[in-house]
Automatic annotation (TrEMBL), chain B:
SUPFAM superfamilies: MetI-like. One of its GO terms (biological process) is transmembrane transport. Coiled coil: none annotated. Belongs to the binding-protein-dependent transport system permease family. The keyword Thylakoid does not apply. This is Carbohydrate ABC transporter permease. Residues 68-257 form the ABC transmembrane type-1 domain.
UniProtKB/TrEMBL annotation, chain C:
SUPFAM superfamilies: MOP-like, P-loop containing nucleoside triphosphate hydrolases. It comes from the Bacteria. GO terms for molecular function: ABC-type transporter activity; ATP binding; ATP hydrolysis activity. One of its GO terms (cellular component) is ATP-binding cassette (ABC) transporter complex, substrate-binding subunit-containing. This is ABC transporter ATP-binding protein. Residues 4-234 form the ABC transporter domain. Keywords: ATP-binding, Nucleotide-binding, Transport. InterPro entries: AAA+_ATPase, ABC_transporter-like_ATP-bd, ABC_transporter-like_CS, ABC_transpr_MalK-like, ABC_transpr_MalK/UgpC-like, Mo/tungstate-bd_C_term_dom, NA-bd_OB-fold, P-loop_NTPase. GO terms for biological process: carbohydrate transport.
Length: 287, 272, 353
């Protein structure tokens, strides 16, 4: 082994060791758990039941319900964030007055602990105590934010409130790295602002946009705190998301084997998204 | 010379004001609620009232500062370990292409791994080691995402350091590691600072692991806040005070790192 | 004080050979310039000597000691990089003193020593500045100061002047030479600029495709290039090179030019090399060659001549220029004993005339 190889692996060793302990081992152990009938309550050693948990959860309508809720949630939240994020980023790009303060303030929500966001909105949107329903009532509108048919959308709006800033942050960086010449050339050529945006800015922004959308989607898939803080899965199972469903199965019903199986199904989806993201990142890094 | 006001300009200003109000309103409302009495809390439209500190006294009695201290301790330990290991690893990956793209991929994958996958092994191990309901397993759990995030974050910063600095230091009489420590690290200190603050907020903000690994004793701050939601009904005033305690430090800290966040989050793929 | 030797030194990545069994001697106290077009292996050779690249084969010795396995820090060399590689977080004084930190000399001694070096380089007033607040030339001096403070056995320079503007480059060139002479430390200097190589070096090593094309004193190489490559690489403007035959002191190119080359032996097929300074133009009405372009360079001019299918250049002084204008028919001749002859197949130098 040459000195360089030794140095290279020596520098990487701490990360690999800690990742091995904190990620690799639990990951392997979780897979083992997903193949057993492990229950938190039972004393003896668990039995290996093979793929039984997977068969069980894959045929469990509650899991599919959780998946479809999560998918709906992610799509609504990320789509709204992208549109709003792009609009705000474009507006902020031109903003001169109190520039840094405006930006810092508009980006603040993404640093707040999600449970605080959840509880705040639970309170703010509460039928009796909340400020927003009270205002709406004074306008003659009666809207139950956590009622049937509305709750999942409300959760998605909370995600929009907290995470649109993330989109703004990345898109603003993307916009500011767009070279000026093509834009000026388009202006000289007499192109309208809309045309220049669509034909010049948007194509240059696509890589950042893709990265931002994928990162947000991956993160939104993990939604837990909002559900825990507000609806606890209700009304019925309308807002039961995967992470919440896993939590319930594992912690409230003590069925760790099944819960781990659900988590691995989720992992399969996440990995697919990560491969997409990684390809995109490598390509944009290569440019 | 008069400035022409275009419809786009007006739309832009309106949008930014709307966004600012949307962001600020919930926070201000909660901050006000933390000074309201239970009776005042029942009136959602109340903005002018005589403030009292009962809620704050109540959360301090309930040990919110202990929870905040534990959260800070967990975050500080997690971040310290992550910054040391992460900066070494990130440099090896950036400058020496260590581990190839498999390592880069692994690091990206590790930071977005759903916590639902890892939490049960942490729980069973904590039971086995009789450290359940303490914050020790939370540190391990937080390392599982803070370390990959910080490593990823720093790769982009190391990419911007010219290789010749390390080479120059080696010719000047230093070992590779000494060159890394004395010459390369000072170039990325702002990035390391941003990564540390970012990692701190990630750890500070996480509730999922804390809720499962230490739900009742040695609770960390987000779990303690959530407890006001269930314990003896909802204590809105106290909960509001607790929320403000959790939110203020990280939001202030975040102001200092925003310019460097982009480069870090995208692993250097998007630059300012 | 050290003699450096490359013995069959080789560098390859996979099957790509960058440096191919190179032998070079760098005599004690000399300033040797490695010169060649980009990709010729000159920088890689320097980096192998510094210890920044591993050596794939052969041996490098410094004062008889094989250094192949040694880290850069154990080789007692100092290096100036093309971009100077100044430490941005350190002041000028700390930059210069930095190598002394490795020797664990007390900080106050190191800084005092650095102050002396800074003074000797005219940086005395700038010692508390950061590198980003210096001009290119000042940064360059700091890099040199950092290289000389430790009194290394060998100085290494990797294109140290290429980031400077033309005027500063010429000034710094001489300053560097003076410092090297004064300290008497063996120096290896890499550049792609043949003029820099010619003016600076005691010894010059011309490299091409990972091999040494020719080495020797710069005036020797200029006077007797051993191949067409070296002949055209060294010297400015570039040497004229044409293929043809010689009989009775007359050269006829395959392109139809005719050049008088008195005293040159008859040969069937040969490459004739003529430096522009040695190509004499005489205006003659009956001549077939024509002046195509005149580039004025103050007292002298480069005259381009179309002769048959060949385009030749000649350097003409002011006196000769008065008779020439674009379109003037000229006869061509090589100044006596100034013709270079090369084998048309191997492109190697043929025994003289």
């Amino acid at each position: 082994m040459t000195r360089m190889t030794r140095f290279r692996w020596g520098m990487l060793a701490p990360v690999l060791a800690i990742t091995g302990v904190a990620v690799g081992f639990p990951l392997g152990y979780a897979f083992y758990l997903s193949l057993t009938d492990y229950r938190l309550t039972s004393r003896g050693a668990p039995d290996v039941v093979g793929l039984e948990n997977y068969f069980f959860v894959l045929t469990d309508p509650r899991m599919w319900n959780a998946f479809s809720n999560t998918a709906t949630y992610v799509i609504i939240a990320v789509a709204l964030q992208t549109l709003l994020g792009l609009a705000i980023a474009l507006a902020l790009q031109k903003q001169q007055w109190a520039r840094d303060l405006t930006r810092a303030m508009l980006l603040a929500p993404m640093f707040i602990t999600p449970i605080a966001v959840g509880l705040t909105f639970r309170f703010l949107l509460n039928d009796q105590l909340g400020a927003l329903p009270a205002m709406l009532r004074s306008l003659g509108i009666d809207y139950d934010f956590f009622g049937p048919g509305n709750a999942l959308f409300t959760l998605a709006l909370m995600d929009v409130w907290q995470w649109t800033p993330f989109m703004v942050l990345l898109l603003l960086a993307g916009l500011e790295s767009v070279p000026r010449q093509p834009l000026e050339a388009a202006k000289v050529d007499g192109a309208s602002a809309w045309y220049a945006f669509r034909r010049v800015v948007l194509p240059l922004l696509t890589p950042v946009l893709t990265v931002a959308v994928l990162l947000r989607s991956l993160d939104a898939l993990k939604v837990f705190e909002y559900v825990y803080a507000t609806t606890r899965g209700g009304p019925g199972t309308e807002t039961e998301t995967i992470q919440y469903f896993t939590y319930q199965t594992g912690i409230q019903f003590f069925r760790l084997g099944e819960a781990s199986a659900v988590a691995f199904v989720l992992l399969a989806i996440v990995l697919t998204l990560i491969v997409l993201l990684f390809r995109r990142l490598q390509r944009s890094a290569a440019r | 010379m008069t400035r022409r006001v275009s419809p786009w300009g007006i739309a832009r200003t309106l949008l930014l004001w709307a966004a600012a109000v949307t962001v600020a309103f919930p926070i201000i409302w909660v901050a006000l609620a933390s000074f309201k009495s239970p009776a005042q809390l029942n009136d959602p439209g109340l903005f002018l009232f005589s403030p009292n500190l009962d809620n704050w006294a109540r959360v301090f009695e309930a040990g919110i500062l202990d929870a905040a201290g534990r959260s800070a301790f967990v975050a500080a330990v997690t971040v310290s370990i992550s910054v040391v290991a992460g900066s070494m690893g990130a440099y090896a990956i950036s400058a020496y292409k260590a581990g190839g793209s498999a390592t880069r991929f692994g690091i990206l994958a590790a930071q977005v791994l759903p916590p639902a996958v890892l939490v049960f092994p942490f729980l069973t191990m904590a039971y086995a080691l009789r450290i359940d309901n303490t914050y020790v397993p939370i540190i391990f759990a937080h390392l599982s995402f803070v370390l990959p995030v910080i490593t990823w974050f720093l790769i982009g910063f190391f990419d911007a350091v010219p290789r010749s600095l390390e080479e120059q230091a080696r010719v000047d009489g230093f070992s590779r590691f000494a060159a890394f420590r004395l010459v390369v690290i000072p170039q990325v200190l702002p990035g390391i600072g941003a990564a540390a603050i970012f990692g701190f907020t990630l750890s500070w903000n996480d509730m999922f692991y804390g809720l499962i690994l230490a739900p009742t004793r040695e609770t960390i701050l987000p779990v303690a806040i959530a407890a006001f939601n269930t314990f003896r009904g909802v204590e809105l005033g106290a909960m509001s005070a607790a929320i403000i305690i959790a939110v203020v430090p990280v939001v202030i800290a975040s102001f200092f790192i925003q310019r460097r966040l982009v480069q870090g989050i995208s692993g250097g793929a998007v630059k300012f | 004080m050290a003699e450096v030797r490359f013995n069959k030194v080789r560098k390859q990545y996979g099957s790509t050979v960058i440096v191919d069994d190179v032998d070079i001697d760098f005599p004690d106290g000399s300033l040797t310039v490695l010169v060649g077009p980009s990709g010729c292996g000159k920088s890689t050779s320097l980096r192998m000597l510094a210890g920044l690249e591993e050596i794939s084969g052969g041996e490098i010795t410094i004062d008889g000691r094989v250094v192949n396995g040694l880290e850069p820090k154990d080789r007692d060399v100092a290096m100036v990089f093309q971009n100077y590689a100044l430490y941005p977080h350190l002041s000028v004084l700390e930059n210069i003193a930095f190598p002394l930190r490795a020797t664990r000399s007390p900080r106050s001694d190191a800084l005092a020593r650095a102050q002396e070096v800074a003074d000797s380089l005219g940086l005395g007033a700038l010692t508390s500045r950061k590198p980003k607040d210096l001009s290119g030339g000042q940064q360059q001096r700091v890099a040199i100061g950092r290289a000389i403070i430790r009194q290394p056995s060998v100085f290494l320079f990797d294109e140290p002047l290429s980031n400077l503007d033309a005027k500063l480059r010429v000034e710094t060139r001489f300053e560097l030479m003076q410092i090297q002479r004064r300290l008497g430390i063996t120096a290896v200097y890499v550049t792609h600029d043949q003029e820099e190589a010619m003016t600076m070096s005691d010894r010059m090593v011309v490299m091409r495709d990972g091999r040494v094309a020719q080495s020797g004193r710069p005036d020797e190489i200029y006077a007797r290039p051993n191949s067409v490559f070296v002949a055209t690489f060294v010297g400015s403007p570039k040497m004229n090179v044409i293929t043809g035959t010689i009989s009775d002191g007359d050269f006829r190119s395959s392109g139809g030019s005719r050049i008088r080359a008195a005293g040159v032996t008859t040969r069937d097929s040969v490459i004739l090399g003529v430096r522009p300074d040695d190509l004499v133009l005489s205006p003659t009405d009956s001549a077939s060659a024509r002046v195509a372009l005149i580039e004025l360079l103050g007292p002298r001019a480069i005259v381009h001549v179309d002769s048959g299918d060949d385009r030749l250049t000649s350097v003409v002084d002011a006196a000769g220029l008065s008779q020439l204008s674009v379109g003037t028919p000229v006869d061509l001749a090589v100044r006596a004993t100034a013709a270079h002859l090369f084998d048309p197949i191997t492109e190697a130098r043929l025994s003289d005339q």
